[in-house]
Each structure stands twice: as C-alpha cells, then as structure tokens.
Fold this protein.
Amino acid sequence: MKTRIHNFSAGPGVLPEPVLEQACQDLWSHGDHGIGIAECSHRGKQFDEVIAAAKERIARLLTLDDDQAVLFLHGGARTQFYQLPMNFLRGGRRATYLDTGAWSAYAIADAKIYGTVDVPFSSKANRYDRVPEPGEWGELPEGTTYLHYTANNTIAGTEFHYVPEVPDGVWLASDMSSNFLSRPLDGSRFGFIYAGAQKNIGPAGTTVVIVRKSLLPRANVDGLPKMLQYAVQVEKDSMLNTPTTFSIYMIERVTAWLEENGGLEAIERRNVAQADRLYGIIDASDFWKGMSKPGSRSRMNVTFTTGDADLDATFVKQASAAGLSGLKGHRSVGGLRASIYNAQTDAAVDALCDFMREFERTHG
Ligand SMILES: *Cc1c(COP(=O)(O)O)cnc(C)c1O
C-alpha cells in the first residue's frame, strides 16, 4: 500500500486507519456474505444489520431516549438548513438562531424563506471570533419554536463548550456537523440534531439526523414531497429510497471504533490533548496569532496566522512539501487551519508541532 501523508483537511477529513483497512476488505466481500458492502441490496439482512447497528451505537453514545429517531438522509447538512424550517416554520411560525459563523448564516438565510427568524446574537462583525457566553442572547422572543445553534464553527474555528438552556416549550436544534461524537453529550436534551458525516464520522454522502418523534405531529407537511417529510423518513426507517449504503456502513464502523476505544470520554481526552498542544505553541510566542477568542476555541479546527498573508502562504507551501496537507485557512477568513477531528493521529499532530516550531525558528 502507498504511504499516507498527514492530512489536516477540514472535510472530508481523516478517518480511523483500522476502519479504512477493514473497509478495503469489506468492499471486496463483507463478512461471510461473499458480496461487497457497496454491492448488496439495502432491503436485505446484510444491510439491515449494518444500519440497525449504526443507529444503536449513535443512540448509545449520545444517551438518546426512546422518543428520538436516528435517520440517515441525503443532501448534506445543507439540506437540513431548509428541511428543518420547511417542516417546522411554515405557516407563520418563528425560530431563534445564533449567528456564529458562515454555516449559521446560511442556515439563517434558508430558515427566513419559511418563517420569522430572530437572531439575538451575532459575532459576524468580529469575523466570528467567538460564540456567546451562556444566555448572552437574552430572553427568547415570545412564540419561538426552537433555538438553533452551530455547535462547532468549522471555518472560524470556534466551538460551544456548553449546551444552551431553553425554556419549557422551546426545543433545541443544533448543527453538529464538525464536532459530532467528539465529546460526551447528553443528546436527550435536544429536539433536533444534524451532522454531515464527512467531518468526523464517515465519508461524504450521509447526514445523520436525530429527531424527536413527539415533535412530528407539529410539523406542517402540506404540499411537502415525501422525501422532505421527517415523519415519512422515520416511518420508512430512512429507506423511502435507496439510502447511502456505503457511507452508513462506514458510520457503523467508525462508531464501533469509538465504542471499542473508550467511547466519548476517551475521544474527548485525545481531542483536548491534541488541541492543547497546538494552542500551546500558538500562545507561547508572538509569532503565531490564534484567530478565535480563547474561551471559544474549537478542539476540531484550530485557526491561526502569522499575521502576514504571504508568510502564511509560504507556511502552507513548505508544510505541504514536508507531507503536511490541508493547512490553508478557508478562503473567507484566510490564515491557517489545522483540522484535528476524532481520527487525527498523534503522529500527525507531533509532526505539525515540530514543523511549526522549526518554521518559527527560521522565519521569526
Ligand atoms: C461542512 C459543514 C456544513 C455543510 O455540510 P454539507 O454536508 O457539505 O452540506 C454545514 N455545517 C457545518 C458546521 C459544516 O462544517
């Protein structure tokens, strides 16, 4: 097998090596079925076991309750930006959104197509350098259906380190695309969670959607195609049409890898340790500048800069030549970004730390 370089891509991102090795075999012939995992019917026992196990593992990891359904849908996290308000806001309802990054802003724009959207907090004027303090957004407007927030802001490199409180009668909705299953979380506090698989738990193709079944009767499904009705997707167990079978298989294997390696507590320790090492280097000298406020720093996407766009470009180029790939910041914010999702190896973080120190020594 050809060697792999150190990959800091923001998404699709790194996957666990043992899972990739097994997937190579299972693509050829899955278990003792004699049929590759991408070649079997989604209606047969072979795939049934895979999707059932994927749902069970996610429910167990997030301590979901019996009222919460786990779905695997198409169209990326971005489809949820409109599918959620299409179901729950049409007919003159309102929702509250916290604007903490480019993805929040896209979600807000789509929600406005269907209902009234209140945005009581935005860090946009400061280049999205932080998330709010708990409760900083104040009282929620009368009649709010749900409070939506982006748990990790992939582009700006900020993250909520707490779960917002909501008053009785309002439910919590969150885009967890880029920190899904990266830390212990009581999933039963949520009405709605969604996450595109390709940042932290699998290849592109699937969006994990967790919806509270008791909310479904409140959805306005008048004129909605069946594919876009959550109630239908729950009833059909994500199989109204052909689901993204290979991506779901990979999610099952990645969640098995998480459970076999100590679950969310263990992965959190590893994620914190890796993030601390990178932020430690950034904080230890004036050469590096972190791009997000310390209390809001993401453990998944570390954004930093030398403060000089040309020097940042030199860093990206030399890092790439040294086998460290994917370190260029998002074009909307510039700078540098190291994505250190669950599967990021300590060896890759070691190599990046060494490279940063050497770069500072030679360019500082
Ligand atoms: C990448 C990302 C998205 C978009 O995901 P797609 O699956 O490409 O639609 C949405 N939200 C967040 C937080 C992301 O990181």
About this structure: The first strand starts at residue 6 and ends at 7. The chain has nine helices and 14 strands. The pocket of pyridoxal-5'-phosphate is lined by residues 11, 76-78, 103, 150, 154, 175, 177-178, 196, 199 (CB under 6 Å). The chain has two domains: 18-260, 263-363.
